[in-house]
Amino acid sequence: MDSILSRDQVSTEPGAIHRQSRPALPHALQAIQIKRQVRDLNQDKWRTVTVYAITSLPTWQAGPTELATWIRGHWSIENRLHYVRDVAYGEDHSQARTGNARRNMAVLRNLAIGALRLTGATNLAQAIRHLSRDATRPLTLLGLT
C-alpha cells in the first residue's frame, strides 16, 4: 500500500527480507478530498486547490456535509487570524528565532487581535495604526489604566 495512510516496515531474518505495510494512521476512519476553484482578485486566471482531511470520526458522527462545514470553519479562522498576523504584523518576516520567542510573540499578537475584535474593530490595520500612535491607548483598551 503506497499512500499517506500506510507505513512500510522492513525486517530481515536469515535467508529472507520481509516487507509489510501497516496503517500509519490506524485510527483514521474517513478521508475527504476537497477541490476548490480559487481566483486572486487582481488576476483573471482561476486555479484549482486540492486539500485533504483525515478523521477518526465515524460517518454517523460526521458525514461529508459536516466535515466540509468544519473544514470551511477552519479556513475562516485561518483567514481571520493567521492572515491578519502575517499582513498586519508581518509575522512571516519576524526576526525572532530563539527559544520560545516566536510562540510568545504569536500569543501577544493573538491577544491584540482578539482585544481589537472585542471592540468591534473591522479594519484591524487601521486600529493597530491608531493604537500605535500613543503608548497609553493599548493599555486603555485592555483596561490597564
From TrEMBL:
UniProt feature, compositional bias: Polar residues: 1-12
Protein name: DDE family transposase
Domain Transposase IS4-like: 35-113
Pfam families: DDE_Tnp_1 (PF01609)
MF-aspect GO terms: DNA binding; transposase activity
Region (Disordered): 1-22
GO biological process: DNA transposition
Stored InterPro entries: Transposase_11 (IPR002559), Transposase_11-like (IPR051698)
